[in-house]
Design goal:
single chain, 367 residues, alpha/beta, Rossmann fold, 2 domains, eight-stranded parallel beta sheet
Length: 367
């Protein structure tokens, strides 16, 4: 089985979609699949898959560029430059399956037809609107298999597409309860830490997170993330959280230590496609304050007593206080073992095999 994963951010960014799909690629390669990854970063040691560097212009360069269909954001502009470069090296006949979560440009490039075209797999890491919307460029969307990362997407698409319900996973060798490393990370030693791992974009509501933490007396808000709203966030923090706001940019290898060095995990996004950060915080023993939703309950179950309406600042602050008092867990939750990448990879393999044999019917993962 020959599989290609393509995304501009591979080996360049450590955001949710990149982390999730690279983990799937690595786990599939461990099973013996012949896996190639195309991305804009550099080759990394110890990856089990083959990596092909495809140049693209960084999304940060496009933050002030105009927004219009289909170039609706800085990531779409980046995607366009990546897709153009990828077409020079992409040979469809070399693969059985091609996988992406990027629409429209990478998706269009991967659909280049030849006598032996690979099966097209789209993963809903960033939403499922390409699969069901008929507006604008979304009318051009085609795929042979749709991986839905939550039950909402699965229910919405299963009648019209060949779908699999497969959540994201987590590396339980890296993310687990353990000793704090605040001194090494340059974090305060004697104050409670509320951690947000969020891009500085509108949908992540980092500004609302700053306002909520400002209701607490002494907690420090640490934000791991970057994006167009960084200046606005830092200005608001200077006003509401003087000496109680830290923005960090850490390598992927340091993220488990950051979780273990914090006291509460706060996430303000109203509705994530999945949210790898929830699994990371949960595995490291952090109480989680986030938006109450059936989708998040599907992931966390009873392990999340602090979900609430995060649009209510007082309710969010009250849950933060209670979560701080509850403390971190020193034990790895048993339920999170269902999300190991080895189990998730088996679900992907089962879906690929079903598609390859032309079998109909949907697949619900092993979670």
């Amino acid at each position: 089985m020959k599989v290609l994963f393509a995304l501009p951010g591979f080996h360049r960014y450590e955001r949710g979609a990149e982390v999730a799909l690279l983990s799937v690629a690595d786990a599939l390669a461990e099973t013996g699949a012949d896996v190639t990854v195309m991305g804009s970063g550099s080759t990394r040691a110890k990856s089990r898959y083959d990596f092909v560097e495809v140049p693209s212009v960084r999304r940060e360069r496009f933050e002030r560029f105009p927004s219009f269909p289909p170039l609706r954001s800085e990531t779409a502009w980046e995607d366009a430059t990546f897709a153009l470069a990828m077409m020079r090296v992409y040979r469809p006949e070399n693969y059985d399956f091609v996988v992406t979560c990027s629409f429209p440009f990478t998706h269009w490039a991967l659909r280049r037809r030849t006598k032996r075209a690979p099966l097209q797999i789209f993963v809903t890491q960033n939403g499922d609107w390409p699969a069901f919307s008929n507006d604008g460029e979304f009318r051009t969307f085609r795929c042979d298999g749709l991986v839905c990362t939550n039950p909402d997407y699965y229910e919405r698409n299963k009648q019209v597409r060949n779908c699999a319900l497969i959540p994201n996973g987590i590396d339980l060798h890296k993310f687990a309860p353990g000793k704090s490393e605040r001194e090494r990370l340059g974090l305060p030693l004697d104050q409670p830490i509320v951690l947000m791992v969020s891009a500085m974009i509108e949908s992540k509501r980092v500004l609302d997170g700053i306002r909520a933490v400002a209701e607490l007396d002494d907690a420090v808000l640490v934000v791991a993330g970057d994006g167009p709203l960084r200046g606005e966030a830092e200005a608001l923090a200077r006003k509401l959280l003087p000496d109680r706001f830290i923005r960090v940019s850490l390598s992927a290898s340091d993220m488990p230590a950051l979780y273990r060095s914090s006291d509460v995990f706060l996430h303000m996004s109203m509705l994530e496609s999945f949210g790898n950060v929830f699994l990371e915080a949960w595995a490291c023993g952090l109480p989680i304050v986030a938006q109450e939703s059936e989708r998040l309950r599907w992931i966390l179950g009873k392990e999340a007593p602090f979900l609430c309406d995060t649009q209510n600042r007082q309710a969010t602050a009250a849950n933060l206080r209670t979560a701080l008092l509850s403390g971190r867990s020193s034990e790895l939750p048993e339920a999170i073992r269902n999300f190991s990448w080895s189990r998730i990879a088996q679900d992907y393999l089962a879906f690929f095999e079903r598609l390859a044999t032309g079998s109909r019917g949907d697949l619900v993962g092993t979670r």
